[in-house]
Amino acid sequence: MTNGIKDHIKAMVKTMTLEEKALLCSGKNFWQLEGIERLDIPSIMVTDGPHGLRKQAGEADHLGLNQSVKATCFPPAVTSASSWDEAALYEMGQAIGEECVQEEVAVILGPGTNIKRSPLCGRNFEYFSEDPYLAGEMAAAWINGVQSQGIGTSLKHFAANNQEKARLVSNSVVDERALREIYLVPFEKAVKQAQPWTVMCSYNRINNVYSCENEWLLTEVLRKEWGFEGLVMTDWGAMNDRVKALKAGLELEMPGPDPHNDKKIADAVRNGELDEAVLDRAAERLLTMIRKACEVRKKEYDAAAHHKLARRIAAESAVLLKNDGMLPLKKDGSYAVIGAFAEAPRYQGAGSSKINPHQVDCVLDSLRENGIAFEYAPGYELEHDTINQALMEEAAACAKGRDGVIVFAGLPDSYESEGFDRTHLNMPESHTALIEAVAAVNPHITVVLLCGSVVLMPWRERVESILLACLGGEAAGSACADVLTGAVNPSGRLAETFPLSLGDTPCYENFAGEGKDVEYRESIFVGYRYYDWAEKPVAYPFGYGLSYTTFSYDTMDLIWDEEAEKGEARITVTNTGKTAGGEVVQLYIGKKQSAVMRAVRELKGFKKVFLQPGESQEVVIGLDKRSFSIYDTDLSGWTVEAGTYQIYAASSSRELRLSRELNLQGKQLSGIPGYDVSEVIKDGRFSADREQFKRLFKGEIPLTPAASGITLNTTVKEALTSEKGKALLGGLVEGYSAQYAGEDDISRMMLSMLFDMPLRSLAMFGAVKIETLEEIVGETGTPPLITGRGLSLLLYLR
Ligand code: BGC
After folding, report:
1. Which one of 360, 368, 379, 566 is separated from 151 by 20 to 30 angstroms, measured CA to CA?
2. What is the chain's mean pLDDT, rounded?
């Protein structure tokens, strides 16, 4: 943006009234920003993503109830991250950007790059990884792709938003090292490498401060340290204290309109509580974005090309977990295809990211087109997770005597969704029992898993091959067929560890918290960092994945310029098999002798290469000072500890192929608090107590202070424990409990959201006016009854 335009925007803000500037700071409706006719400022549109466009058709209604326009449903982040291919993510972003251009959407609300702290988080399918480096690279590539089309993105949910339970009010209690080294890194990388137009603050509090009003997070870290140039908006309904949020560095409240808060802003300027310069700066940032959005000219996209791309990315992201020779399928074989998911694949997650796809490919059709002969039996019902004996017996009969059986299984919608977390890692009984029943009649089984997060596989020794197809987007069916038949050689690698049991996960004892507080006691030991530190066996390690070919790691050279504090690892890799294929060369760094608590090794670089049979290639992975640093909370900065580092070229976090050592001058570190393995692992489980956790903080642990009486942040569940709350909310809760009595994903999401909702959000969902609530909360008299009719939680039915 030229200086001329910047001056013009500044001058325009000077001509605006206080009310006009405040008006810009909240949305016009659910999906649009305010414009100002008098000044020719148009209203631009933002809509959900991130694995496609979810633009609601027709007028953007306040409730978000309208069906969204057709768009390409690309593989969600759980899948695309397994590609470990930034180029693919960039292409996906580019294509989604093109769809935004055609649909006149200025900003797409994604990517979601929160860390997968626990495999139980209901929204993990929307996030990339348990590893911050990988998550950051994927997010940055996607943003760069979208923004290359002149369309903005919204990096979300900033930050430490790692569960759905009580998501509007939860308090993520995280020590600073864990925040800096794990939870903030994906955002930091994405901001520095891609400058998203906007960042979306999360609903939750971090160490007791709501993200929307967290000045340290939004101004000190995001803008001052990382150099963020765009604007910050709330997640939908994440606003707590409007004036405080503006001061902290949050410009836009969504959705809108919010005349009550707009007035608070104007009043605060008038009474001297808020410096008008802060509001002017917010208005300038908003106008800057609106101006950028207006530079794009409408153009049609090529839906067929996008479908093809969705198929390529889905196939490239599939992870082959096991193969005792059954794959690829043989053209002259006679197979059974079992599992209702083969007919109706689960291809995306539920909630705000749900895309209305152009078409959904069916694997049965694609296998037929590829000349594979098979018979199909559904084996289980899609609507229920209990065993249907007749369907199971029919499936077993169909499987008997075949050359091989391909079973499609995984997680139904009702098992994982935005809005609630899982409570276990099991697949439905109807799926696991089916695999066992088929295994009893035919040992030649391939299981294709369609799921958005980790599942346990107690049956894995009884099957020959396992293909993790995750959630493949609208081309999931054809992409699966591509990999099963060998048209595409699988090159996906796990972006998260598959543990052997839920009890093995590092935050088992602290997910998803008691009440509102969630103590991240495992600190930096997330995912493989924990399993390696605790020496825990796992089902499949982070970074793992097989191929139809093999690769050798031949040589590794390490170059380091001590003065420039930069270097690179050069690794030569060869395709030693007979099939062309892709390998993900991963670079991990560890330090065996260290005065600080640290992971055994951490991912600090990777590169995906595609090699013909017999072909070798030198892979170059850059390193810098940060690759070796830890966050020193005493110095409030990144520091390299002096001594010897181990650098590994690896094909997973546990398959270390080559290693080198490097001595760095660095600093002698001491006094940085941490845990010893022996003190926090009890009976094979991570179990730090409050006192041990306290050591990681400089003072007291920032837990939620006890509230006296009902406040705007009291949840419905909490309010119902008092007579006043019952009187206020009884009608509403009864109405909704009756309406959503089912076991499906929508009912579970609705009820869990309702009970965990703070009273202030009831206003956003239209149940009551915020002014009424503000009056009620302080008083002792009998409040008016809020009834179910008023609450438009239905907006989540999208
Ligand atoms: C979700 C966001 C989403 C927004 C708008 C929120 O509930 O957390 O990810 O972008 O709704 O639909």
Report:
1. 360
2. 94
514 Cβ partners below 8 Å, 6+ apart? none
Of 267, 200, 207, 274, give the one whose Cα is nearest residue 237. Answer: 200
Distance 204 CA to ligand 1 centre (A): 13
Ligand 1 centroid–CA 203 distance in Å is: 10
| Structure tokens belonging to residue 303 | 């839906």
Ligand 1 center–CA 761 separation, angstroms: 14
Given a contact cutoff of 8 angstroms between Cβ atoms, the answer to whether 48 and 353 are in contact is yes
User: Going by C-beta distance under 8 Å and a sequence separation of 6 or more, which residues neighbour residue 15?
Assistant: 39
CB-CB neighbours of 20 under 10 Å:
18
Indicate whether residue 285 lines ligand 1 (CB < 6 A).
no
pLDDT tens figures, 292-350: 999 999 999 999 999 999 999 999 999 999 999 999 999 999 999 999 999 999 999 98
Q: What is the pLDDT of residues 45-82, one digit of tens each?
A: 999 999 999 998 765 444 444 679 999 999 999 999 99
Ligand 1 pocket, mutate which of 234, 235, 753 (most atoms under 8 A from CB): 235
Question: Hey, CA dihedral for 83, 84, 88, 90, is it positive or negative?
Answer: positive
Give the whole-angstrom CA distance, residue 685 versus residue 501.
11
- Specify the pairing of strand 637-640 against strand 629-632: antiparallel
Whether the predicted pLDDT of 526 surpasses 50: yes
Residue owning the nearest CA to atom 6 of ligand 1: 236
Regarding the beta carbon of 354 and ligand 1, being less than 6 Å apart is answered no
* 541 has a pLDDT exceeding 70: yes
For residue 797, pLDDT over 80 is answered with no
> Alpha-carbon distance 571 to 573, whole Å?
6
For 483, list phi and psi in degrees, rounded to 5. -80, -40
Q: Is any atom of ligand 1 closer than 6 Å to the C-beta of 798? A: no
3-state secondary structure of 553: strand
Pairing of strands 319-323, 465-468: antiparallel
Compute, in angstroms, the gap from residue 121 CA to the centroid of ligand 1. Answer: 16
CA dist 100 and 296 (Å) reads 10
Rounded CA separation 305/315 (Å): 15
pTM of the entire predicted model: 0.96
Candidates 307, 361, 311, 315; CA nearest to 548 is 315
What is the C-alpha to C-alpha distance for residues 661 and 645, in angstroms, rounded to an integer?
Answer: 6
Q: Has residue 762 got a pLDDT over 70?
A: yes
Beta-bridge mates of residue 569: 558, 621
* Residue minimizing CA distance to atom 11 of ligand 1: 236
Q: How far is the CA of 437 from the centre of ligand 1 (A)?
A: 41
Q: Is 796 a residue whose pLDDT tops 50?
A: no
Q: Which residues are known catalytic residues?
A: 235
Ligand 1, atom 12, residue with closest C-alpha: 352
